Amino acid sequence: MAVSYREVKGSNVSPIVSERGRNHPQKSFVSERAEMIPPSGIRKFFDLLLTMNDVISLGVGEPDFNTPWNVSVAGIDSIERGATAYTSNKGLEELRDLVSSYLISRYGTSYDPQNEIIITGGVSEGLDLAVRTVVDPGDEVLVADPCYVSYSPCVMLAGGIPVPLPCPAEDEFRVTPDALMERITKKTKLVMLNFPNNPTGGVMKRGDLEAIADIIVDHDLLLLSDEIYSELTYEGRHVSPASLDSLWERTITLNGFSKAYSMTGWRVGYFCAPPEITSAALKIHQYVMLCAPTMSQFAAIEALKHAEDSKDRMVAEFRMRRNLFVAGLNRIGLPCHLPKGAFYAFPSIESTGLSDEEFAERLLIEKQVAVAPGSAFGPSGIGHIRCAYAVSREDLGEAVKRIGEFIESI
Amino acid sequence: MDEKNREILRVLESDSRIGHKDLATMLNLSTHDIATRIAGMEKSGTIRKYTAVIDWKKAGDDGVTAVVEVKVSPESEFGYDRIADRVARFPEVKSLRLVTGSYDLQLIVCGRTMQEVSEFVSGQIASLESIRETVTHIVMKTYKEYGCELQRSEGVERLPYSF
Ligand SMILES: Cc1ncc(COP(=O)(O)O)c(C=O)c1O
Question: Which residue in B26, B159, B162 is closest to A320 by CB distance?
């Protein structure tokens, strides 16, 4: 028999109807899990920025290039052809084949397109998918610190416990064996890495990965490697952890089209892992996402087939901007490592005596330059600001000038 | 040509006003090295001119531009070169190319009025000895010039902040 809560004896739910009337909910429906996710660390800056003019935003985490036109045309074509229905859960076979060939030829990582690759709605979905596939409540997950803002929330939503794995400036923003050893406990299950890194631009070379590989194997851990910036590597070639024989069986590799091909709004990426993990992930993906956007999958096919030149031109431009911008920052007295990948510079602002939040807020208000406070990316980001050099060289020059004036005025 | 010179040229082609100092930082060379390389390429004629891309319609100019196709009887000794050289000397001719296909030379001709352009083509070009035929196309609208899209503001619409 259905009873209303008012008739339940001993119920601790208050029977008092609020002033807003009896239709108004008497309790919060938001789950505890959703409740524990902290609000975004840049909301305040976002709102502030919208009230201002003449702002140069170095706060944007996406390329300032258009999607290569031939790639967009492939998406348009698929819509015109009427190829707008669901694809298989795993994604278009041609796309999986191309991803597989690309990964082996470019990074030496071998994934079978039939049972080791899933096309996802961007790396964003890939991260959530990976974490939910492998994390049980109470598992500890080591999260590169600083890192992309979704990592810890994803872990928390899966019931896991995120543990920051510091990659500070003095280690050139890399994971060192000592830092890793120090944080491993009996409960540690997964290590989440992202190189080239957002927000630091740090990379892990082959030697750096080899140095931590043994520890990962010895402690029987799993590695989640987010390689969304792999094409934006400015010195030498990106090294994918799964290309190390010792790590392949214990690595989930995530990558996508957002950054390399300026396709952030298309929402397409891929998840690669050994078959057992992939088939478990596919169960979640099929119910949550069903499949990645179909037109975006067709565009992604074109990107892998015919967008190498566009990508190379973009990477060359980012490299030049990086050199220009980082030299500018060091000149005006903000010490900054030359980032080896991605499109972020992560200078220390400690010499100014301001906190990174104060620095970012005052810089925006006083000089109309938007940057992201480093602390938004984790405890190791404290005292730094993230500057995305995904703006024109002209704007970068102007931004350096304004930041310089701001520092002088403090 | 070495890769560094090629990189310098690509940057200059997109922004010829860039200073040697910035160029040096961007390409990881010394300012002196940049200056020497650029001077060398200017001297050899690899770099011909520093210029600006201008939308003359925006400047209020109502001049006329025409694409002119020209059929030529090549000369036995000089081929197309001598006639091309004569055509190129007219300042009205902004660019001139020898092309494959149904005609030989393609000219871009500018003038103040339609009449000025047509008089120039019929009077100065069509009358040349080895020129057999000309077809003049008046430009109605320019969409793209030297890689610049003139009818569309470039750039991507993005959120002002994102992680
Ligand atoms: C490290 C990192 N991972 C993932 C993403 C999201 O990528 P996608 O667009 O493929 O979802 C971003 C975007 O900024 C990122 O910086």
Answer: B26
Q: Omega into B91 within 30° of 0, i.e. cis? A: no
Q: Do the Cβ atoms of B158 and A60 come within 8 Å?
A: yes
Question: Number of structural domains, chain A?
Answer: 2
Q: Is A123 in the pocket of ligand 1 (CB under 6 A)?
A: yes
Do the Cβ atoms of A279 and A115 come closer than 8 Å? yes
CATH code, A47: 3.90.1150.10
User: Does B16 lie at the interface with A, CB-CB under 8 angstroms?
Assistant: no
User: How close B156 gets to chain A, by Cα (Å)?
Assistant: 6
- Claim to verify: residue A373 and residue A279 sit in the same structural domain: no
Element (H, E) at A334: none
Please tell me the distance from the alpha carbon of residue A328 to that of residue A315, in angstroms, as a whole number: 20
Q: What is the mean pLDDT of residues B118-135?
A: 95
The amino acid that residue A243 corresponds to is S
The residue whose CA has the least distance to atom 2 of ligand 1 is: A148
Domain end (from A262, A292, A307): A307
Give the position, in ligand 1's atom list, of the atom nearest the Cα of A194: 1
Q: Residue ranges per domain, chain B? A: 3-43, 64-141
Beta partners for residue B108, in sequence order: B67, B95
Residue A377's identity, in one-letter code, is F
Mean pLDDT in chain B?
94
Across-strand partners of B68? B107, B136
Q: Inspect the interface and report whether the beta carbons of A61 and B163 lie closer than 8 Å.
A: yes
- What atom in ligand 1 is closest to the CA of residue B162? 14
Write the ipTM: 0.89
- Whole-number pLDDT of residue A18: 55
What DSSP letter does each residue of B16-85 carry, written as one string? TT--HHHHHHHHT--HHHHHHHHHHHHHTTSS--------TTTTT---EEEEEEEEE--BTTTBTHHHHH
Any domain includes A143: yes
Q: Do A59 and B156 touch (CB under 8 A)?
A: no
A283 and A365 inside one domain: no
Judge if A61 and A209 occupy the same domain. Answer: no
Return the residue matching tokens 């001119």. B49
Give residues 270 to 309 of A whose Cβ lies within 8 Å of B.
none
Beta-carbon neighbour count of residue A247 at 10 Å? 22
Which of A307, A341, A369 lies at the terminal end of a domain, its last residue? A307
- Cβ A370–B162 below 8 Å, yes or no? no
The dotted CATH code for B3-43 is 1.10.10.10
Evaluate the CA torsion angle A375, A377, A380, A384 in order and state its sign. Answer: negative
Expressed as residue numbers, the domain containing A154 is 87-307
Write the residue in A46, A64, A372 that is nearest to B155 by C-beta. A64
Mean pLDDT, contiguous 10-residue spans, chain A (410 residues)? 38 54 86 90 83 93 96 98 98 98 98 98 98 98 97 97 97 97 98 98 97 98 98 96 98 98 98 98 98 98 97 97 97 94 97 96 96 96 97 96 97
* CATH code for the structural domain at B64-141: 3.30.70.920
Residues of A within 8 A of B15 (CB-CB) are: 393
| Contact assignment for A323 to B155 by CB distance below 8 Å | no
Cross-chain CB nearest to B163 (options A148, A321, A323): A148
